[in-house]
Amino acid sequence: MTELYFSSSQNPPRWLVVMGVSGCGKSSLGAALARELGLPLIEGDDFHPPENVSKMRAGIALTDADRAGWLDTLASTLAAHPQGAVLTCSALKRGYRERLRAAVPELRFVFMELSREEAERRVAGRGDHFFSASLVADQFATLESPVGEAGVLAVDATAPPAEQVSRARAWLEQEAAAGPAP
Fold first, then answer.
1. Mean pLDDT within 89-104
2. Contact 22, 136 (CB under 8 A)
3. Alpha-carbon span 51 to 143, nearest angstrom
4. Which of 21, 23, 52, 145 is the most exposed place for a label (fewest CB within 10 A)?
5. CA 161, CA 60: separation in Å to the nearest integer?
6. Which residues of 11-49 are buried (b: 16+ CB within 10 A; e: fewer)?
7. Quick one: pLDDT band at residue 7, thresholds 50, 70, 90?
8. Mean pLDDT score, 117-129
9. Which CB contacts under 8 angstroms, 24+ apart, belong to 120-126?
10. Which residue has the higher pLDDT, 13 or 150?
11. What is the C-alpha to C-alpha distance for residues 129 and 82, in angstroms, rounded to an integer?
12. Tens of pLDDT, residues 48-82
């Protein structure tokens, strides 16, 4: 397998967000890509303030105001990694993605596409996470698909993990060869 290096002498640094609704597999793909690319992993859920976690645990959907400080923290955390990083973050709205892009203009997104039914099934099966399964419908109502935005790859969240990683790596290689995002 060819190693993908993002050194300043060969390719520009890379920052990547693995995004999508809860239960789509962001954490799994993000961790696999971080290992493959030799980049640090930033788990977005770890940065939610306690108030947000309490709301989600209680089945209360977050508002844009609830997410504002969290997104600012994620943006500054990404920007603090000058050689790149992989972030897992729902990034449901275009405005949220633009907020992250403002901090790191070269940011790319891998969108984990998943049906509502499959997301509900997966989230209901997770016993160790604060996100209530009752909130999946709200996430789909909030989601503004990034398909068609520059610097976005859509990946089938039901595909085998090795296929997801392979597809994302190939796309990142193409993106690196093409140069900085528009």
1. 96
2. yes
3. 22
4. 145
5. 31
6. beebbbbbbbbbbbbbebbbbbbbebbebebbebbebbe
7. very low
8. 74
9. 120/23, 121/23, 122/23, 122/24, 123/22, 123/23, 126/23
10. 150
11. 31
12. 999 988 888 888 888 999 999 999 999 999 999 99
Scanning the structure block, which residue is given the tokens 């392979």?
Answer: 166
Residues with Cβ within 8 Å of 98's Cβ and at least 6 positions away in sequence, in order, are none
C-alpha pair distances (Å), 171 with each of 16, 51, 88, 106, 109: 12, 37, 18, 14, 11
Residue 12 in this model has a pLDDT that exceeds 60: no
Question: CB count, 10 Å around CB of 114?
Answer: 23
- What structural domains does the chain harbor? 18-178 (3.40.50.300)
Q: Which helix or strand (DSSP H or E) is residue 80 part of?
A: none
First to last CA, the chain: 30
Helix (H, G, I), strand (E, B) or coil at 18: strand
| 3-state SS class at 15 | strand
Task: Tokens for 111, please give them.
Answer: 């969108």
